[in-house]
Design a protein that fits this description.
420 residues; mainly alpha; two-stranded antiparallel sheet; 69% helix; 1% strand; globular
Length: 420
C-alpha cells in the first residue's frame, strides 16, 4: 500500500491493519488495546468518561511496570525530564500557600504524561497499532463534523459564535484541533506529494477541517491547525506549485465565507486575528498574561504552587486594576513561571523540548516506499511559547493534548504505509 493510493484503498488497508492488530493481541493486553482504540470516541462524550479512559490506561501501565519489572523506558531523556519536573512540582506544592490543594492537583496531573508513556512504549509499540489509532481518529473527526453540522442546522450559530455540541460546553474547538491535528498533518503531506493523483480528495478533507474549525469560533485552535499545516509542509518533499495553489484556494475560500458570515468574520478575519492574537497589546490577553508575570515577579523562586493561580491570582492582582485575574495566565510558560518559579519554568521547558525532540524522527522521512509523517509538529504546535493556551494543569485541555502527543511519541519509529 502506497501513501499516494486511492483514499478508499488506504482506508481499507487501515481497516485490515486494525483487524489484524486486534487478532494478534492476547488476554488483558487485548482488552486495553481495544479500550484505547475507542478513545477518540470516548473523548466525544464528556470530561468524566474521557478522564476515566485515560486514567484506566495510565494505572494499568503502572501495574504492568511493577509486575513485569520493565523499567527500560526510564532510560529515555524525555521520560526523565517529565519525572524530574513532576517531583519538583510536588515539592513546590508542599511549600505553597495552599499546599493540600496544590499537592493533590500536581499528584494527579502525572496521569497525563504516564498515559503518553504507556501508549508509546506499550500499547502502540508496532506499526499496525499506529495505523489503527489513525483510522479510529479519522472516523471520530468525521463524526465530529456530522455533530457540528447537526448543531448548525438544528440550532443555528449562537450569538457568541461558539459551537458547543456534543459537550454542551465551549470545548468543541479543543477536540477538533488537538485530536484532529494528526489527521490534518497526514492529509497535508499526502495531498502535496507530487506523485499523488488523488490529492484533490485529501485537499477537500483539509478544507473541511479548516471550515469547521472556523465555524466553531475558536481563533487559537484555528491557528493551531493552520500553523501545523504550514510547519508540516516545510518538512516534506512538495510540489510547491500545487501547494501554493492549494494555500491560495484555502485562504480565498475562508475569506469568502468570512465575508458572508458574521461569526467567521468576527473570529478569523485577518484584522481580528492580528489584533487579538498576534498583537495582544490591543486586547484582553495582555492583561491576563501580564497578571501572570506580576505574580511571578512577587514569587520568582518557587512560585505560588502548581494549579494555585486560579485560587490566588485575585489576591496578588487586587492592587493592579489594569491586569485581570483569571483561572490561569493563558500561556504555559507564564503559568509555569508564576506557579513553579524560575526553576520550574526551566524544568518544564526542558520537558516540553525533549518531548518535541523525541517526536522528531531523525531517519529519512520520505522515500518511494514509506510514509512517516512529521508528527513532531503536534507537540511543537501545542507547546509553542508565543501562543495563548489553556490551563497547563487543567483536565479538559490535557485530555486532548496528551492524547495527540502520545501518538506523536509512538509514531516516530514506524512507517504508516508501505508497498506490499
Amino acid at each position: 500500500m502506497t501513501y499516494y493510493s486511492n483514499p478508499i484503498n488506504i482506508l481499507s488497508f487501515l481497516w485490515e491493519e486494525l483487524k489484524s492488530s486486534i487478532r494478534e493481541k492476547k488476554g488483558y493486553n487485548k482488552f486495553i488495546y481495544i479500550f484505547w482504540l475507542f478513545g477518540p470516541f470516548i473523548l466525544l462524550i464528556e470530561r468524566t468518561p474521557a478522564d476515566i479512559w485515560l486514567s484506566v490506561i495510565s494505572i494499568s501501565f503502572i501495574f504492568r511496570v511493577i509486575i513485569e519489572r520493565d523499567f527500560k523506558f526510564f532510560r529515555e531523556i524525555w521520560v526523565k525530564s517529565i519525572l524530574l519536573f513532576w517531583i519538583y512540582c510536588l515539592c513546590c506544592s508542599l511549600i505553597s500557600p495552599l499546599p493540600h490543594y496544590s499537592f493533590i492537583e500536581t499528584l494527579v496531573w502525572v496521569r497525563f504524561p504516564i498515559f503518553a508513556i504507556a501508549v508509546s512504549v506499550w500499547i502502540a509499540n508496532d506499526q499496525k497499532s499506529i495505523n489503527s489509532i489513525i483510522l479510529s481518529t479519522f472516523i471520530a473527526i468525521l463524526l465530529m463534523m456530522i455533530i457540528l453540522s447537526g448543531e448548525i442546522l438544528l440550532k443555528g450559530i449562537p450569538s457568541d459564535c461558539r459551537l458547543t455540541w456534543p459537550y454542551g460546553d465551549k470545548v468543541s474547538g479543543n477536540y477538533f484541533a488537538k485530536i484532529g491535528l494528526p489527521i490534518l498533518i497526514i492529509a497535508v503531506v499526502i495531498s502535496n506529494e507530487y506523485k499523488n493523483r488523488f490529492a484533490i480528495y485529501w485537499a477537500f478533507l483539509i478544507f473541511l477541517m479548516f471550515f469547521f474549525s472556523a465555524v466553531i469560533g475558536e481563533r487559537m485552535n484555528f491557528l493551531i491547525l493552520f500553523c501545523g499545516m504550514l510547519l508540516s509542509s516545510l518538512f516534506w518533499k512538495l510540489d510547491f506549485k500545487k501547494y501554493l495553489i492549494f494555500i491560495f484556494f484555502l485562504i480565498s475560500s475562508l475569506y469568502f465565507f468570512s465575508q458572508n458570515n458574521y461569526c467567521m468574520e468576527k473570529k478569523i478575519s485577518s484584522k481580528t486575528v492580528i489584533k487579538e492574537e498576534v498583537k495582544p497589546f490591543y486586547s484582553d490577553y495582555l492583561s491576563v498574561m501580564g497578571g501572570g508575570y506580576l505574580v511571578f515577579k512577587e514569587n520568582p523562586v518557587f512560585g505560588i504552587g502548581p494549579a494555585n493561580y486560579r485560587e490566588l491570582s485575585h489576591k496578588y492582582l487586587k492592587n493592579y486594576p489594569n491586569y485581570r485575574a483569571d483561572n490561569h495566565p493563558h500561556n504555559f510558560y507564564i503559568q509555569l513561571a508564576a506557579e513553579t518559579g524560575i526553576i520550574g519554568l526551566i524544568l518544564g521547558t526542558t520537558m516540553m523540548f525533549t518531548i518535541i525532540y523525541h517526536s522528531f524522527n531523525k531517519r529519512k522521512l520520505f522515500d518511494n516506499k514509506t510514509f512517516i509523517p512529521p508528527f513532531f509538529v503536534i507537540p511543537t504546535a501545542f507547546f509553542w511559547p508565543l501562543a495563548s493556551t489553556a490551563d497547563f494543569f487543567g483536565q479538559w485541555n490535557n485530555l486532548f493534548v496528551w492524547t495527540s502527543i502520545s501518538l506523536a511519541l509512538a509514531a516516530r519509529n514506524y512507517k504508516l504505509f508501505q508497498k506490499s
